[in-house]
Amino acid sequence: MEDGRDGNDLRAFLSERDAQPLPETVEGFLRNVERGARALRLQGRAMLIACADEEIAARLGAGRLTAKLCTRRLVVQTKSETAFRNAARDIGYSLPGN
Q1: Which of 9, 35, 40, 97 has the CA that lies 20 to 30 A from 59?
Q2: Which residues contact 79 (CB under 8 A, 6 or more apart)?
Q3: What is the pLDDT along the chain (98 residues), one digit of tens a residue?
Q4: How many CB atoms lie within 10 A of CB 29?
Q5: Which residues have CB under 8 Å from 15's CB, separation 6+?
Q6: How open is the CA angle 40-67-55, to the nearest 5 degrees?
Q7: Which pTM does this prediction carry?
Q8: Residue 82, helix vs strand vs coil
């Protein structure tokens, strides 16, 4: 899924090798994998700002002028990208473009 393949590719691969329908547990697994593959997406570059404390971060996140400019997103530093991808994969999520 991370390299852009569709879940139907795997479904077809498995179905071509056995005349029986796929078991419900396999279908459930494939649905979970597909959901996890669609749950995260890369959205572009961003500026990483470290606030002195949570109160400042909360004020900026809720401010009339700043709230629409700093959305709630996950920020992963470039040096941690591989570790984040692996950790996300371990709990069922994947990012495209790896």
Answers
A1: 40
A2: none
A3: 777 777 788 889 999 999 999 999 999 999 998 898 888 888 888 888 999 999 999 999 999 999 999 877 888 889 999 999 999 999 999 888 75
A4: 13
A5: 21, 22
A6: 100
A7: 0.60
A8: helix
Tokens 């371990």: give the residue: 90
- Tell me, what amino acid is at 36? G
Report the distance separating Cα 62 and Cα 54, nearest Å. Answer: 12
Q: How far apart are alpha carbons 69 and 64 in whole angstroms?
A: 10
∠ CA 28-31-32 to the nearest 5 degrees?
Answer: 90
10: Cβ–Cβ under 8 A, 6 or more apart, which residues?
A: 30
The answer to whether 98 touches 85, Cβ cutoff 8 Å, is yes
SS3 category, 29 = helix
